[in-house]
Design a protein that fits this description.
This protein has helices at about 1-5, 5-20, 35-45, 50-80, 85-110, 115-130, 140-150, 155-185, 190-195, 200-205, 210-220. The protein is an all-alpha fold.
């Protein structure tokens, strides 16, 4: 009797072990389910495709950077004939201009996530590289600034101030220079290039910045 009753508890333990064995065979194999599908959906939603405007901006930045670097290298070969510091010009064209072109490309890359920072990088890179052939970067700068002004109020305000303040100062100097030329009275405080104009058109030349000042003011006061 004792030998026949011994296998009973062992059979019950084996049955319990089989009952609580996880379905699917091995315990380390994950099973597909709603959680996995939801995780894939969240991963796909976390990285949406770039807008068409941003893709065009990035393409313009890459193409402009390549053309700017090539043109800067051409200018660097001509710096030997310059009457000023040839070494400084060569460093500007060979080192600084490529770095500024890379800054524009990085600005186009981060424009979607950090709009204000990307716009500042576009403006700084293109503006400082203009003297070294950075005009090729202007399309990317314009496209990026327009997109940033449409998407972020802070970027819109910053762009408006950057356009309004220098252009308003230019309009003021143009008005003072025109009045000084018309009346014959000296106007102290004018920039050197406007201090002694030859014609009235030359004195009023800074008034060409009036549309830029108007655009900057409109960006500041307008509301979406």
């Amino acid at each position: 009797m004792e030998t026949d009753s011994e296998p009973g508890p062992a059979r019950e333990l084996e049955g319990l072990a089989r009952r609580f064995e996880p379905a699917g065979g091995m315990t380390g194999t994950p099973l597909p389910g709603p959680e996995l599908a939801a995780r894939e959906q969240r991963r796909a939603a976390a990285a949406p495709p770039r807008e068409l405007w941003l893709r065009v901006t990035l393409f313009a930045a890459l193409l402009g950077a390549v053309l700017t670097v090539l043109y800067a290298w051409v200018l660097a070969r001509q710096d030997v004939l310059a009457p000023v510091d040839a070494a400084g010009l060569a460093s500007y064209h060979r080192v600084l201009v490529p770095l500024l072109a890379a800054t524009v490309v990085l600005g186009a890359l981060v424009l979607e996530r950090a709009t204000v920072l990307g716009m500042v990088m576009l403006l700084a890179g293109c503006g400082l590289a203009l003297a070294g052939g950075g005009i090729w970067l202007a399309p990317a700068m314009v496209l990026g600034c327009v997109w940033a002004a449409r998407k972020k109020p802070m970027a819109r305000l910053l762009l408006g101030m950057l356009l309004l303040i220098p252009s308003a100062a230019g309009v003021y100097y143009g008005l003072i220079g025109g009045l000084s030329f018309a009346t014959g009275l000296p106007a102290p405080g004018l920039p050197p290039q406007l201090a002694d104009p030859i014609t009235l058109a030359q004195a009023l030349a800074p008034l060409e910045l009036l549309p830029v000042a108007w655009l900057g003011g409109w960006l500041i006061v307008s509301r979406r």
